[in-house]
Specification:
The structure is a homodimer of 145-residue chains. Chain A is mainly alpha-helical and 145 residues long. Chain A is 49% helix and 6% strand. The structure holds a DNA duplex (30 and 30 nucleotides).
DNA sequence: CTATATCCTATCGATTTACTAGGAATTTGT
DNA sequence: ACAAATTCCTAGTAAATCGATAGGATATAG
């Protein structure tokens, strides 16, 4: 079980935007350059972030992206879910509470509760971490640049 | 982010073995039949469980698999990790504590702690759930069959 | 011996992941 | 008006992973 680069890069994009919140629109190229990532790839990710209403885009020269909400109002969970669809450990259980179980009817789905519990715990965890928590780190140099 | 069938099926195998702990070796075929899963596929999973020293195999007719430890001594984390390699949200961080970061040196890896934190939390969670917790459920019919 | 099992290796179709390519549309500055 | 910068959109693609299948070698109970 792991998070993919989609989630990882997306959080990086959002952190980058948080740190440059006072600089007006930030171009994706500058973000890609700073983190040494593919701009085209990030493009697809930030498209989802835009659809999820987490960032606002400004087209044209000197354009770029701006956070749509305060970093204290955006959770890591929102970010990851917007690009990954869901953080559910097991797909089917994210859709519905009843597990589409293929077991013998006599055999109970003893593991069902486990996945629901894991799913909820992971979601709770990422929903408790705000973008502002990642930016305001001791020893960070937000005041320098 | 999700757990795959590898982890899910493996837990099902282990729960099945737990419930039949007094019946001697349990054949994989019977497990596959009960849960309506592919025996060949489970074979690959239980191979990992054996390597991880979670089950013992008995070859030949009337053979099968037996739990190597008490269900109260086996965690869900051990099971999932043995078939999935790692439960780390991000691969690199499971190997080492230092993130192999490709960022501009001036740009700090602000998200590093996040993934470490997530990894540790998920691991902690699955390591706190024992096989015995999944079997001893209220309303379960372990006494019937 | 034979049936029942585990064991081992190889393959395979489908899906997802990470990434690339190319161009249309929009806006700023000259 | 024009050029440069930038978002926006679609399509494709190589590699990895996932879920599963196939076929046979090895071992053991009866």
């Amino acid at each position: 079980m792991k998070f993919t680069t989609r989630g990882r890069y997306s959080v990086q994009i959002m952190v980058d935007l948080s740190r440059r919140i006072s600089e007006g629109p930030v171009s994706l190229k500058s973000i890609a350059d700073r983190h040494n990532l593919s701009e085209s790839y990030l493009e697809q990710l930030i498209c989802e972030l835009r659809k999820a209403d987490l960032v606002r885009s400004v087209r044209g020269a000197q354009g770029g992206y701006v956070l749509k909400r305060d970093p204290g109002q955006i959770t890591v969970g929102e970010i990851i879910r917007s690009v990954a669809g869901s953080i559910a450990p097991v797909d089917c259980e994210y859709q519905t509470e009843t597990l589409s179980c293929s077991c013998d009817p006599d055999e109970q789905c003893l593991t069902r509760d486990l996945w629901v519990r894991l799913r909820d715990s992971v979601n709770e965890l990422v929903d408790s971490i705000f973008l502002s928590d990642l930016v305001k780190k001791p020893g960070d140099r937000t005041d320098v640049d």
